[in-house]
Amino acid sequence: MSNVESDDVICNFSNPQKIHEGGQRVVFRVDNPTYGFAALKIGYYATPTNPIGWELSRIEREVEILRQINSHFYPKNYDFQIISKNRYLILEEFLNSPQLTQRMERFYSPFTALNLIKQLAVGLKIIWDKKIVHRDIKPDNILINDDNSPRIIDLGIARVLDLDSITQTKYGGPLSRDYAAPEQHRYNKSLINWRTDQYNLGIILMQLLLKGQHPFSPTLVGGKSIRDNILNNNWYRNAFSDKSFFPIQSLATNLLGYEQYDRYRTFELFMEDLNYSLELMR
Question: Are 43 and 50 in contact (CB under 8 A)?
């Protein structure tokens, strides 16, 4: 249940319909005369007296990143305001597509899984070229349109490599435990770069090939937890005993390289291997 006051804001918008609520944010679909349907997000930002909620600087950074991007892979930002009572308002493109979590079965074949990873990589290159690392690529942050094309959302913990870190500690930063790369789990901020996102893609690729099972799951490979298995480089390599997966083995192994130097050095090398795997699958 949301604790966010919103009545004084939504009265300024046409036909607001609540579509999501959490403890510190509520989201409405509204009618906008310029953009049609739009997503209206109202939330609290953290203050010294109320530390619950996102840091305002992180919210502002996500908005700024989206404003730099003009791509169908990402939602468009229309407006951002700091409003009364320690709240913020974001108006952005309304996306009505389900998460990959809900449409994973569409990509269980090796060919469709590879195609999705290729589209995601092309979309991510847009921010990689701006020296931005998403850091949170996971099925919940990927929306799948009816034509199976992806949209990438939630840049809330994205890292802009040319700017100072928002997380003011010497240790790591925010992460999603089941999809974070080893350097994220080791809290080594100095190693965060585009190869960190590669690792996230590698987990998703293997999860699709394993029909929804996480490749680091203790159910498949033992160990205490997914996090421990990531830190111990313990993932389900036996998947490649299935001959239909063999053309993907080199690609997946590189994406899931434990050290960053084991992953792809350039985007071009990444695409070369991915396209080669796709050709072998035809």
Answer: no
pLDDT of 170 above 70: no
Q: What's the CA gap between 271 and 273, in Å, rounded?
A: 5
In Å, how far are 46, 121, 142 from 118, measured between CA atoms?
37, 5, 13
pTM for this prediction: 0.92
Task: Give the Cα separation of 15 and 40 in Å (integer).
Answer: 11
Residue 232 CB partners (closer than 8 Å, separation 6+) = 223
In terms of residue numbers, what domain contains 127? 100-281
Q: Does a structural domain hold residue 2?
A: no
Bin 36: left if φ > 0, else alpha if -120 < ψ < 50, else beta. left
Q: What is the pLDDT of residue 203?
A: 98
pLDDT value at position 165?
A: 59
Of 48, 78, 93, the residue at which a domain comes to its end is 93
pLDDT at 190: 87
Q: Are 60 and 176 members of one domain?
A: no
1 located within any domain = no
